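Worked example

This section walks through a single chain of length 347. The input is the sequence exactly as stored; nothing has been trimmed or padded.
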Amino acid sequence: MWQRYMWCMCLARKIAGRRIVLNSSYLFYIRKMTTSERLSRLETRAITAEELIKTLKYEVAEVKKLSAQENNKARIKELETENEQLKKEIEDWKNKLIKLEIASGIKQVPLPSKNAASLPQSEDKSVKMSSAVKDEPKPLVSNETNQQEGTKVDKKKKEKPSEGKKAKSGGGGSSGGDATTEPPVDVGRLDFRVGRIVSAKKHPDADSLYVEDVDVGEGKTRTVVSGLVKFVPLEEMQGRVVVLLCNLKPVKMRGVTSEAMVMCASTPEKVEILLPPAGSVPGDEVHVEGYPRMPDPVLNPKKKIFETVAPDLKTNSEKVATYKGTALSVPGKGVVTAPSLVGVNIK
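Given that input, the structure is written out below as tokens.
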């Protein structure tokens, strides 16, 4: 009996041990299966999250593009509105300028249309040159200032000086009658001469102007007003040898009468006084080969001779002052040059 009892107890222990092993293996398997399922679920969720993030990034980029396009459209509308306002202002100022020119006795030349018949060569060239001068941006230099101030001052006394000039000229070629006797409009009509600035000072009533006493070989000095304060220091003006246009009509500039114009190579940012050749003295005449020198006693502002010639006065690539590519020179002494500016207008 005792042996059977012991055998039963051993068998019970073995069965209990096997159950424990089976239970622990089953639990381990269940735990392993739960962990792998969780990992697979986490991986699936991570992939889904990445796809959502990519989608969101794409949508954000599209929203930014749309907002940028909207901003650009708004800016374009603003610019178009500003352009319309500027056009209106330009037209208003253009009409005012035309009225002032008409009041000053300046004839208005209508621009030819595209379908208009071609003009004769000389007339067409003159119209193109005059329109080019009007359209060209003008820095503050003596010739433009002289022209503008002169027309303002001479509004009231427009007719009497012209009669006096006719009397003085005695019916000469430049003031009179037949168009066939008038010389061609070219650089030969301009009285370019070498001069020396005896003294220079600032204009008492204009911060941008110099007042100079200039010797041009006439036995007495001429007074010249130049808008060069922003471009040439006062000490560099003293005793300087220059090229002057001597047959412009004298005009008052802020109460001081200017009797000539200092010629300069000019851009909107920089202006340089032209340099006569070495050895030049006051009174030396400046010539252009191929254009006989026949200067008018006084240029008639209404004929716009200087305005017609000016577009062809330029410096070349070697800094030489030219008219239609031909150098301005003092016979026997050399050519007129600019200190550094090339390919710019001379005014």
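What to look for: Residues 170 and 176 are 9 Å apart (CA to CA).
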